[in-house]
Records
---
Amino acid sequence: MEKIMPAKDRLLKSGKNGLGNEMRGKVLVILCAVIMISVTISITIFLGTKGLQSFIKNGVSPIEFITSTKWNPTNKANPEYGAFPFIFGSFAVTFLSALVAAPLGIGAAIFMTEIAPSWGKKILQPVIELLVGIPSVVYGFIGLSVLVPFIRENIGGLGFSLLAGTIVLSIMILPTITSIATDAMSSLPKSLREGSYALGATRWQTIRKVLIPAGLPTLLTAVILGMARAFGEALAVQMVIGNVRDLPSSFLDASATLTTIITLNMGHTTYGSVENNTLWSMGLILLIMSFVFIILIRYFSSRRKMQ
Amino acid sequence: MSTITTARTVFDIKDLNLWYGNHHALKKIHFPINKKEVTAIIGPSGCGKSTFIKTLNLMINYVPNVKMTGEINYNGQNILNEKLDLVELRKNVGMVFQKGNPFPQSIYDNVAYGPRIHGTKRKTHLDEIVTKSLMDVALWDEVKDRLHTPALGLSGGQQQRLCIARALATKPDVLLMDEPTSALDPISTLKIEELILNLKEKYTIVIVTHNMQQASRVSDKTAFFLMGELIELDDTSTIFSNPADERTEGYISGRFG
């Protein structure tokens, strides 16, 4: 005859096996998390130490590095390490492309969610997915063979320019902004639209005065994610922007960004040299900027939760 | 059935039929609604009471595949047939929904929303409207020190009263309420009911409710809907004490629904 155990013992016993499984699962996911976190921390530490070496070990003045417009690291007698033109170039293409892509992307999102939810979504959704899927080298190639000659012949200058970089980047970040903005708009509750219409508001009034303000934190997140992508994009920009070391004085001037200078020069500078170290410093600036973007996104999403 | 049209009639609905696709949701509704009375609409779920109230300010237009025939005369104008100014209709026929739906803006901006979209710009004038509307719903004392804080920080009952104030701010003469207390606790419900009794001095109120006690407490007229038909419309006291139709009696005595 089977021995009947008291309920307390049964509960304890049945717990044992389950607990073993629990532990294994827990260890597994903790391991994944630890790997991810340690990779991030290692990159940050590595980039931090490498990026600061040019200032600490090689004696490049950080002020000069950030503010000077003279970039001439190969001059043996009097090397100059002013990265301002590239910092400026990075910020310029980022903000300009956001300025172009944000209204387009948010407008497309509103069209899809408010004006023509049925067929608008059917057409625009695959278009956006396709735009995301095109590799950046293809964008750059198209920019190089179509956009650059077009600007040269119709607008002026060499064609390789801040303008070309801005246009290519705008198209590249458009899908990011559009898809997040679409999510932002479609996640707004139906009751907001009802409330506005019931007061006699027109569709446009409802969109402008209720829906856009209500979705604003997420819409801003969309724009910032687009900007983060623009700030970090190297290849496509490098192919059309001209890559000169001077500060551009107009849209049609060739320019350079932090990312394009890094990709251009990392191959032919020796590891540990001053010039190589200054490239790491530029990488550090990119990392710091991406932290800034993340902080901004965090800020906006906390505002969204507050509402 | 006392469906005689008089000069006191604000809404005069004649032979209204409504289809959702092939589903005949409202059948030959004749329904006069009197000025400065509270008309309650009761009936089991799916009887068409919410559909009916949404026809009065044409919010039904946002439901796809709706077809209507008949007449809905608002102050003598058929809102179904004639070239209608929807903005003007909704300015005059306000609506409050099941759940308070304030915009994610400040309390002040919520109430000022209606007047602003209808062209009121002067700050002093807006202040006046906001103050008065909030007083009308007995919310003024609770929020006067935080008019510019987010409306979503208010409690559920306060939010619903804010939405009533928002509807009153466009100076309507009819107020439609679609189960306005179904998401509220008993105390907030009581406040809304008191409010309805006060508001009926100035406004015509149509209220859809699941709660028969509520209908008997707040309304002058009660209409009983069943499967898309208006079974009975009469004085509330008559409906609850001596209904003419046995289906009405069955529903109010709790035999079905």
---
Amino acid sequence: MVRTIGSMFPEAFRHLWKKRATVLYPFEKLELTYRYRGKLEFFDERCKGCKVCEEDCPSFAMEIKDEGKEQDGKTKFRRIYHTDRCLFCGQCAESCMSESIILTKEFELAESDKEKFTIESTYSTEIIAKEREVKEDG
Amino acid sequence: MPKVTIPVGPQHPALKEPINFMVSVDGETIVDADMNLAYSHRGIEKLAESKTYLQNIYLVERICGICSHTHTTCFVQGVEELMGIEVPERGLYIRTLVAELERIHSHLLWTGVAGHEIGFDTLFMYTWRDRELALDLLEMITGNRVNYGINTIGGVRRNIKAGMKDQILKHIGKLEERVQYYTDMATTESTVLLRAEGVGHLPENEARKFCAVGPTARASNIPTDVRKEDPYAAYEELDFELITSDSCDILGRLIVRMQEMVESCKMARQLIENLPSGPIRAPMSREVPAGEVVSRYEAPRGECLYYVKSNGTFYPERLKVRASTYANWPAVVYSLKGYYIADIPLIIAAIDPCMSCTSRVAILDTKDGNERKVLDMDYLRTYGIKWYKEHGRGVRRR
Amino acid sequence: MSEIVNILLAVLYLLVFPGFLFLFFYGLFCEYFDRKLYARMQNRVGPPLFQPFADFVKLLAKEDIIPEKADKGMFSIVPLFAFAGVLTAILYIPIWRTDAVLSFEGDLVVVLFLLTIPSFALFFAGWHSTNLFSQIGAVRTVTQLFGYEIPFFFACLAPALIMGTWSISGILSQTVIRPEVLILLILAFIIAVISLQAKLERVPFDAPEAETEIAGGSLVEYTGRRLAIFRLMFNIKMVICAALITALFLGGPVLFPAVPGPEFIGYLLGFVVFLLKTLFVVFLLTMMRTVFARVRIDQLLKFCYGWLIPLSIVQFLLLILVRSMGWFA
């Protein structure tokens, strides 16, 4: 077998004048792809209250609570989203029948206050059953 | 120096994850080695029984960060078999493409770690930098660099768009070039050869005896590869070679991995060029019919095995994972003997160990004596024979 | 009156320049230079200029732990002993002119001896830590010592042989008279740089402190200010070894061709030349660190006895031939 010594020398020497490969993260940020799965964003007005997101979530990050009927026949819901439990798989957005969950590109979610991990909102909506459809692209 | 026993791990700079080797040395030479596993038991198999099949995809994905696609594909394949779903061609192709890109990034990562273990940090930095090319592709296709979340029961979740093909081919070309450079460099550089040649010798018969899998077995001249033996996904339609080496040492494992990367690049090209049109996933129901299945998959580290037992509900009754590292440990203990203390990190690293893949059982040492019970091989064999007599050969293979 | 001036001057030499203060900052700078080059060659960013200093200060502030089973006396005194050893050596090495602060016939041997002290200190430190890994490291340190020390001595004595003096300052003043002799010493220079890498225990010869094998070797139990002193000692040792090689093989602070001018400017220029030449030696050492993998201790010994020592004997024979022919008498 051929043997050389210091065969990485030319490559290493050449890199003395090359730009660093490191990205100095907090100061410069890479662009994320549009398929990136970050923090969830909700469109409550589209929600039909089927609770499939709660059912499919692998880490119990989503809670949809039924709070009884309102006067206009709509049902009141309380939605609790735990960002600390969420593992950003996007299954809820995929399972959602009414496209009321969207994944944003936000990923810097560190907080020192535990309370801030829980995002709550209440809304009321009409419950409409709808056939599930297969989605192609996220 | 008299004979002493050195503990390597569970905390040791050479080990990235906890495992313990009790190495008896005479001077600098290793005379005996013993291994203790199960420092990172996470109870994943038990947890899987309380989650639905769909949720379990994301659970098994997190067994290992490097080969996350391995675990989901292996699991999903088994469940699809149970449900009798035919995955569309395009779905299988995308699954295979992600699998091959994962193999490239895993092997490049291994090259870097092996370089670091022998003090060659420059190789480590360069391979990890070039690994980003594969990771960028994975991010573009799936959305994430690790834990891709692309598999679902019945197909894949993300499609490959027309504009992505050029980008993929471009990066594959760059990767091929870099892999070629590392192959040339690592197999001719004297200091690397001094450390890798003839070290960690694992002869063919011993490798067979220890049931080694993956590159470890292939470097001992055993042509074993699930992709060839039992083709899953789109591997039947691909043209690739099974790489083996007869040198049986760490250099052989290095060369096997390097050439496998070249083959993976070739396969990725074929997959992109022959990508069939059509849907990427089949509709699926949430209920899985009763039955049991064994699913095999060639992970970057070797054969990965899943056993899924369903009782007809939303939840699996039993999920058993045999990840590839687990099969390779006995070979490590064997190949440590007779070499130097300095070779320990490299020999351990040579199988590309992933501790989180190995821990499936935790043995507790209770204070008041020997209450622990380990089922030995003979017991398991008689139990297995009895079980098959009663139940018949119900294990289906894909 | 002149006695007081002399004492003050000696204190100045010892504590400020070229002693402690200069070596402290230049040692830290060399560490920065080494790390930065290493990082740049690996396509990384590397540390900022003040990083080694910040590391030093941080270590000083850390908790100081002496293991219960360790020999407390030896454990504490060894770092200071090694530190004092390397600091003394600078006084015999010319830095801004051809004369060092102190010089006498045979000071080359003294410097070589002083530069061996850190290796023994490392051995004692490792041995008396009574940690399994540090003891393996200590044994490896001594094993390695027998490998590199012989070719290093041979290589450093080669200039003494051809110049006919055993004083570093003397060798340097001879070099100024006949710089062409240096061409004969190229082989010795290469041997010296390679064995210096082993002496400094850096990749590819860092088996005694291999992080991935024996968790850092001899210094595994050291923390806080003792570790800080050890690390500073390594940096200063690198500077002094580089300075020694510069003085012996590269003409020290002498600029070829010499620039005429007032004495003061000459000293200043000499000092700058000295810095550049030592940084060049450090660059060579960094380069070796970058492109090689670590060799095992047995392979190192094989390399030293199989290649370096025969080559240094060849160099000696060459010089003896040259001298006996009277070409450079």
